[in-house]
Amino acid sequence: MVKQPVDGIQIDRNLVLTLTDGTRLSGDLYRPAGAGPGPVLVSYYPYRKDDIIGSLFEGCRIRLCERGYASVFVDMAGTGSSEGSWESFDLCREGRDCAETIEWVAAQEWCDGNVGAWGVSYGGMTALAAATCRPAHLRAIVATYATTDVFRDSISRGGCATMLGRYAWSSHMVALGLCPPTLQDPDGQWRRTWERRLQRLAQGQPPALAWQAHPEPDAFWQARQVDAAAIEIPTMLIGGWSDTYADAMIRIFGEVGGPKRLVMGPWMHVLPHLSDAEPYDWVAAMADWWDAHLRPGCAPGREQEAPVLFYAAGEGWRAARDWPPAGVGQRPLFLSGHRLDAEAPPAPSRRHYRSDPMVGIAGGLWDPFGTGNGWPEEQSADDARSLTFTTEPLQEPLLIAGNPQAELYVALADGAEAHLVARMSMVDIDDRSTLIASGWRRVAAASPSSTAGRAGPDGPGGPPGDAGLFLQPTTITLGPAAFSLPAGARLRLSVSCADFPRIWPSPTNPALEVGLGPGSASVLRVPVSREPDRGDVAAAVALAPPGHDDGWVTDSDPAFSLTHDKAAQEVAVTFGARSRLRSPGGADMTTAEYFTARLRSGRPDGAAVLAQVDVDISLSAGEQVHVSVRSASSRRSTVVEGSVTMDGVCLLQHRWAGDGLAGTGPLSQPTHDSRPGPGSPV
Fold first, then answer.
1. With bands split at pLDDT 50, 70 and 90, how would you rate the model's confidence at 465?
2. Is it the case that residue 469 has pLDDT exceeding 80?
3. In what order do the strands lie in the sheet with 638-646?
4. What is the pTM for the complete model shown?
5. Which of 14, 264, 349, 659 qualifies as a cystine partner to 310, CB 3.0-4.6 A?
6. How far apart are CA 98 and CA 101, in angstroms?
């Protein structure tokens, strides 16, 4: 245990707690120096408290201590300095372990028995999962950018497998698993923990292979879901409109019981106080939440009055009693020719489209690392590659608040499969197109027999097209949005079969027909409220405090690029970063991570994600460790190669591979090609 006082804060590192199954976990405690027992906040992460996640939350922990709250950060079983094994997103098990941690904390002399759980992304998931276990001393939680259903919100969107961000994260986690604990204890426990972990990693499989072995929401994924309806304690949820978990945050808000609060800002997967867009003092808001629910009799903060606080693009911060706000109703806009109209067209027709797999490059990234890069850009280039339908200029301002729905009649060539994508945007008076929301749905061609019972006046499934293709109704629920449309703006629906690099392209570039008019009236339903009907009000929020919050990072160099080889008709999107941090334990850690999604327009089946991760660590006792990970993934197969050297000696060199079959069945079992070097523990 290392004790380190910092500015009136006492820090106890590598506290050991033992789970009922015998697994020894390691945690760090930050508490106000000299204070008696008080409420304690618990966080449970797989991202290494002694370097990566510890650095990111150093400023937050200090500020919470200044508000009187101790914090315990615990390395998840099988990660960082903790013993045991780890599998990605095993929320049920992780929730139970976190609940045990909460009860252990409640029994310590520095805790008064009132415990909160909080976290961002994976840490938010474990806070939610722990709350479903209902540990006796857990009084309230805060979850930011999180979900209770990983398959639905991370692995597959509407049946469309996600691509660049998710596979980048998998390679990142392989690299972190290969790294040694960076806080070295004199007894050498760090080395024994590391050696056992390398053995388990060589015998297991990287996350991407497990996902590809279960491409459908089967029993594997069902066992990893937790039920938000089981949460009855006070719950604060913080989400971002441009984050991959925006829909999950709103869905969970509707499911949990007890006092609850929802904050939705214009953020990506970045800590709200570090966002370039509307930096928000979420740490102070979180401390107000703890004041209200962990300190009996404490008056709530000024932001606790309205249960819902949201940022509406074009208008600013708003408050409401619920989500969507009162006064919001569905407005149907029918697809008619190239327009969106209030009335359906009088005669049936179709619009034809040949899929372009490069649609999506202006749509932004789902960046799990919070680099702050990859915002959605002006949409005209993607619109030009899609089927578009646009309204006339609006006669009055409208607030969009909720999930739009596109109810489309579509036809595909027999046997084809498509990833149907609907994007809704605002077109201003200068013809600039701004993304509001997107939705995804995997569809397959329908035969006349499969459309029986849905006949319109022109036959089964509507009128057959030129090639005898039959229309099938398909509903795409777009992501949630809060967007203020000024008078004179236009709404646009863009329909395509790609959203690169957020989802994998379908294997071919299918021909698509969209039905319009009687018997096949495709419609966009938009949740809107008119100015006289609105139930939301203007709100003021606390801005983030000035100054930098770099944690233990000494320098960082993010990367984000788009290259288009027009001769080869290939596009590549690359993101990542090089960064260096010096941990309080004395380790010097440099990471260089770069991830690329690559696609050729004529060969969407050849799309790939390539990863290159290098980690160099100088440990406090002088050892020099180098970790290298290289991976290549297609939609259904992945190959990962990893190596570890210490002081020039190879400890591990290993290859993991899995190859899948087309369709929805599981992949074949992964193969292992392990080549241990001298002194290897495996």
1. very low
2. no
3. 553-565, 570-582, 588-600, 603-618, 624-633, 638-646, 649-658, 671-674
4. 0.93
5. 264
6. 5
